[in-house]
């Protein structure tokens, strides 16, 4: 691991999750979001569905590979190859972070907010096999965190906008009553860190990124004018 101050970030994340559990999870579980807020959440929450992101990343990969084969100039070939590796990077971050998050939520087995009155917010049934006990961490939030963290690393100029989008879209899971706030915070952090570690792997393979002296992956940003 490069010196990315991950211990401090992990400490902050754990404290944010615990504070969220103690202060916000119970009110969310005991009540229900206002109708306009819930409607907004229902409109936006589908973005966290990993299926369309996976299909898009596969399309980018094969489109880039086809362009590399068909285009004539060296510049065009390099651009196409760059696009294909973006597709591969997005695929790796979304798919593998999602698989790990789903394994974690099954292993932890936390009850979802709609069962708050039956089980409370600290009810756990590891490997129960029931979706009612798959709340922590949020899979949708993990996907959103991985996707927008990947774009923040690829295009750091717009990282603040990407972070804001991740928070808003992650919290739609709270708006629709599918997760507690702590589930979303944990999912966003998990997805974001997975994208960062994947970027480090790509940088060590000289793909898309290069490693800064402190170990942080920097986007190569080929053809900035394009």
Automatic annotation (TrEMBL):
Q: Which Pfam families does UniProt cross-reference here?
A: PAP2
Its transmembrane ranges are: 9-30, 50-68, 80-104, 136-155, 160-178, 184-203
InterPro entries (alphabetical): PAP2/HPO, PAP2/HPO_sf
Keywords associated with the record? Cell membrane, Hydrolase, Membrane, Transmembrane, Transmembrane helix
Q: Name one GO cellular component term.
A: plasma membrane
Q: How does it sit in the membrane?
A: Multi-pass membrane protein
- Which intervals hold domain Phosphatidic acid phosphatase type 2/haloperoxidase? 86-199
Determine the domain of life of the protein's source. Bacteria
Gene Ontology MF: a single term: hydrolase activity
Q: What PANTHER family does this protein map onto?
A: DECAPRENYLPHOSPHORYL-5-PHOSPHORIBOSE PHOSPHATASE RV3807C-RELATED, SPHINGOSINE-1-PHOSPHATE PHOSPHOHYDROLASE
Q: What is this protein called?
A: Membrane-associated phospholipid phosphatase
Q: Which organism is it from?
A: Rhizobium laguerreae
